[in-house]
Amino acid sequence: MFSFLDGIIIGSGVHAMPLSTILSTMFGGLGMAGLIFIVALAGSLPLGVLVALCRMSKNRVLSFLAKIYISFLRGTPLILQLMFIYFAPYYIFGLKLSLTWRMGACFIGFILNYAAYFAEIYRAGIQSIPLGQYEAASVLGYSRSQTFTKIVFPQVIKRIAPAMGNEVITLIKDTSLAFVLSIAEMFTMAETLAAAMVSMVPYVLAAALYWFFTLLVEFALGKFEKKLSYYHD
Amino acid sequence: MSEKKEILRIDHIKKAFGDNQVLKDISLTVSHGEVVAIIGPSGSGKSTLLRCATLLETMDSGTLAYGDLVVAQDDASGKAVYGDKQVLKEARMRFGLVFQQFNLFPHYTVLKNIMDAPLLVQKRDEKEVEQEARELLEKMGLSDKADMVPCDLSGGQQQRVAIARALAMNPEILFFDEPTSALDPELTKEVLRVIRQLAEEHMTMVIVTHEMRFARDVADHIIFMDGGVIVEEGPAQQLIDNPQHARTKAFLAQDE
Fold this sequence. Notes:
The complex is a heterodimer of chains A (233) and B (256). Chain A has 233 residues and is mostly helical. Chain A has helices at 19-55, 60-75, 78-93, 99-127, 131-139, 144-174, 186-197, 201-227, and strands spanning 9-10, 17-18. Chain A has a two-stranded antiparallel sheet. Chain B has 256 residues and is of the alpha/beta class. Helix content of chain B is 36%, strand content 27%. Chain B is built from nine helices and eleven strands. Chain B has a six-stranded mixed beta sheet with strand order 7-8-9-3-10-11, sandwiched between helices. In chain B, β10 (221-226) and β11 (229-235) form a beta hairpin. In chain B, α3 (110-120) runs parallel beside α5 (155-167) and α5 (155-167) packs parallel to α6. Chain B is globular. The A-B interface holds A 130, 132-133, 135-136, 138-142, 146, 150-151, 154-155, 158, 230-233 and B 54-56, 89, 92-93, 95-97, 99, 101, 103-107, 116-117, 120-122, 149-151, 165-166, 169.
């Protein structure tokens, strides 16, 4: 992909490395970070709604369990959660840990962790919808699920978009925690290159690429909020 | 009036919030085409009565029926027992409610606010519903607002959309809970004009209101409530012009 840059060498002596190798390695890491980002969101956005609904449920057991879930996942470091999930099958069931499981554990860890944060944002949004909206829907004969999916939830999305945007941007940088499972995401790659080259350049490049990723997401979030700005309440 | 079809029957309704007995044995029937106004001071229980009738509150005891559909009645111990989900759903198809705060759906256009429930709940044909919705908007004087969202409308316009939304369900009876209390005097007029027009078309209505002159002119029957009981009721003009009970007199005098 970057073969046209083959002639450019960074560094000197045994630590020298072609720029094309550096870039393709870093972009490979960016791709992996992007994959973790997308899978984590695809899982945690819906799971967060479920956790929020459990948390607000009149069923005390369900509500209590959701509370514990949120408290534990917010109260322990994501990096430890990733390790626990990865090693659990080995220590609990004596299973051999495969390479695929490494990715699986990473995805599960991010989804579970972010669902806990999202759940609390959803809850704040759901509780901010005026009672009159539920009453109007009730009188018109909407069922409870219709009221939630058609009337309440679309309004919740608009209200929580800024807070969600914050978490989503945090997630971009949190993908670097996957290095603890030796997954080839961008931070892991930068570290490997930096060690080989005895140079800070890969780290600087990583910082630039994380920022670039964030700018893209900020742009998308801005578009999304603008799309929802056709009404205010 | 007695030979006319009975639309709503409320018998001996009681409702308490904790120790506070808000409704103490209220009975009321509304016949087809009748307009009933409920007046009374704040805290008299008139809104709670409306909320019990529209299933937003559950009464403690008493009977509630829409025509031949009995929604709730007392069991042997004198406690109100409500019908199953299907009964409640059917009852909701028979009445409409217009709120003090409009409660339009802010994320829907005016047209969608009116069309959504007939499509989603009543599963009616979209073309037919849209035609009816546009006719209702024209009647409300809001034809040009169909594609706007509620936040772009004035309070009076929003309330007229709310009335159209309720009418689109083709209810047999329409309840109004202080429909103009959130509006400026100027906007109040346009909403009252619409309600007056509905009365002329013999829409069956129950209106909780603070507009005494309006109640006198539009209602057939007025109920004066205070402290959770019906203090006095009678033909509209008679009750306003010549109240019998001391409390009614005091309340009306205060309004002058």
